[in-house]
């Protein structure tokens, strides 16, 4: 449960990055009353088939919010966009699912639900489906029409970032050291490439040798 509480903390904090007085949990109640159920249905199917997709949606949400706010800009195509930035290229997943949800929503209520909100709800529903807590998701975000590759390269922390660098990047987003630890803990629902951490495990003289073997 501790890891889920940590994950919840960071997701809630990321919501606040772009929160403003116009956001409301009931934003689509009249304009697209089935929006949340449409999103939930697709996420349930995808995460049910592959549980680590839940981590992928959470990661997309995190990477979106760290570049000029939670505006869906990470979803935009283009060779100079965030999709092709170093932190996302060949590693970000879940785009096809978000696209499929958007198509279904366009059939139900054309031009109403933003991709930024789809991503926010997808991250929430993934966590809930994997056994985590639920929380109120504020809605009403507007989609960005531009995507900032340089912003992604400069703002999203690298797996090799120092603690000082990580702390500074989180602080720039209005997030605390506690949020930093929580997001790191969210890796418990996904996977990490061994090449990114191998040298820090087996060449670290401070780590318990028995733990390193495990």
From TrEMBL:
Domain annotation Plant heme peroxidase family profile: ranges: 22-214
Disulfide bonds: 32-109, 65-70
Composition skew (Polar residues), residue ranges: 146-161
Site for Transition state stabilizer, residues: 59
Secretion signal, residue range per the UniProt entry: 1-21
Catalytic activity, as annotated: 2 a phenolic donor + H2O2 = 2 a phenolic radical donor + 2 H2O
SUPFAM superfamilies, A to Z: Heme-dependent peroxidases
GO biological process terms on file: hydrogen peroxide catabolic process; response to oxidative stress
One Pfam family named in its UniProt record: peroxidase
Residues annotated to bind Ca(2+) 1: 64, 67, 69, 71, 73, 82
Binding positions for heme b per the UniProt entry: 187
Region annotated Disordered, chain positions: 139-161
Keywords on record: Calcium, Disulfide bond, Glycoprotein, Heme, Iron, Metal-binding, Oxidoreductase, Peroxidase, Signal
Cofactor(s) in the UniProt record: heme b; Ca(2+)
Co-factor note (free text): Binds 1 heme b (iron(II)-protoporphyrin IX) group per subunit. Binds 2 calcium ions per subunit.
Residues engaged in binding Ca(2+) 2: 188
Recorded family membership: Belongs to the peroxidase family. Ascorbate peroxidase subfamily.
Record's protein name: Plant heme peroxidase family profile domain-containing protein
């Amino acid at each position: 449960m501790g890891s889920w509480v940590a994950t919840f903390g960071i997701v809630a904090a990321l919501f606040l990055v772009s929160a403003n007085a116009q956001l409301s949990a009931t934003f689509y109640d009249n304009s697209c009353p089935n929006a949340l159920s449409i999103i939930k249905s697709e996420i349930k199917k995808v995460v049910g088939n592959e549980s680590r997709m839940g981590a992928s949606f959470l990661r997309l949400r995190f990477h979106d919010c760290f570049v000029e706010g939670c505006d869906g800009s990470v979803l935009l195509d283009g060779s100079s966009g965030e999709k092709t930035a170093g932190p996302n290229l060949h590693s970000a997943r879940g785009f096809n699912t978000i696209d499929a949800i958007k198509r279904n929503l366009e059939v139900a209520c054309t031009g109403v639900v933003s991709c930024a909100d789809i991503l926010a709800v997808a991250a929430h529903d993934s966590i809930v489906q994997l056994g985590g807590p639920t929380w109120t998701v504020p809605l009403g975000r507007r989609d960005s029409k531009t995507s900032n590759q340089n912003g992604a390269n400069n703002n999203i922390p690298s797996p090799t970032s120092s603690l000082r660098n990580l702390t500074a990047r989180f602080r720039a987003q209005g997030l605390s050291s506690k949020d930093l630890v929580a997001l790191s803990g969210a890796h418990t629902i996904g996977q990490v490439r061994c090449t990114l951490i191998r040298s820090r495990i087996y060449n670290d003289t401070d780590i318990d040798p028995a733990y390193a073997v495990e």
